[in-house]
Design goal:
Elements (H helix, E strand, L loop, with lengths): L1 E8 L9 H11 L4 E9 L5 H6 L5 E5 L5 H11 L4 E4 L10 H8 L5 E5 L6 E3 L3 H18 L11 E4 L15 H11 L4 E5 L1 E3 L10 H14 L9
Parallel strand pairs: 1-2, 1-4, 2-3, 5-8, 6-9
Antiparallel strand pairs: 4-7, 5-7
Helix pairs in contact: 5-7
């Protein structure tokens, strides 16, 4: 399968030295597939963009200003080539071994999402308040959409192209992952949930502002349509 792996970056200079090794492990995890690696520099001001340009085998697109992780994901999905696109966090909150399992799930799905809250998933070392926000948001989205998915807020996913582009535009902030999944359900796309383990990022710091993100999730929940279950 021809795949594009989308890696959003914003002020991640602390990660740059580990990126070549990460890309090698991503390629190894996806061995047997034709893989394009695509970084989206979301208006970084700390040299991240120039650092990414210097890495061999990595395509890089730049936002002129910081727009948000959702905007970076959308740029990646719009620019992806091949049969499917995968969104993967370069901070390695999830290990690359989740990627082939997401791709395999596309055999019977249009969207496959990593799920730490799946009974076979797990979480280690994540702050209690941030974890509470994520779990609570996923519960509310599950009730709102009536879909039996355990995790809505994880951005690490595989999308079949061009179905993914039909889900755009999306919010530019951290609610984009939940929006894309809810819209996929509303449009009758097949969604698969892949158990995964969420852990603390390896370097740098999260750009999420918890209270701002919580308010944005509440606004999105208010505006979502109630849809029938479409999960497999």
């Amino acid at each position: 399968m021809k795949l594009t792996v989308i890696l959003p970056f914003y002020d991640e200079a602390a990660l740059l030295s580990s990126v070549p090794d990460l890309l090698a492990r991503v390629r190894q995890a996806l061995e047997g597939h034709d893989v394009r690696l695509l970084a989206i520099d979301d208006g970084s001001s700390d040299g991240t963009g120039a650092g990414l340009e210097a890495i061999a085998g990595l395509d890089v697109l730049h936002h002129a200003r910081n727009r948000g992780v959702g905007a970076a994901m959308a740029t990646g999905l719009e620019s992806a080539t091949g049969d499917a696109a995968l969104v993967f966090d370069p901070d390695e909150a999830y290990a690359p071994d989740v990627l082939p399992r997401l791709v395999a799930a596309l055999d019977k799905a249009d969207v496959a999402t990593a799920s730490p809250y799946h009974p076979d998933g797990g979480v280690e070392g994540v702050g209690a308040f941030r974890l509470l926000l994520s779990r609570a948001a996923s519960l509310l989205y599950r009730l709102r959409t009536k879909a039996p998915l355990k995790t809505f807020t994880c951005a690490v996913r595989a999308y079949r192209l061009p179905a993914a582009r039909g889900l755009l535009p999306a919010p530019e902030d951290f609610t984009a992952a939940a929006y894309l999944l809810a819209k996929a359900l509303a449009e009758g796309l097949r969604v698969a949930e892949v158990p995964a383990r969420l852990r603390v990022r390896r370097a740098g710091r999260s750009k999420m502002r918890i209270l701002r993100t919580a308010r944005a999730h509440l606004r999105l929940l208010r505006d979502l349509p109630v849809t029938p279950p479409r999960h497999r």
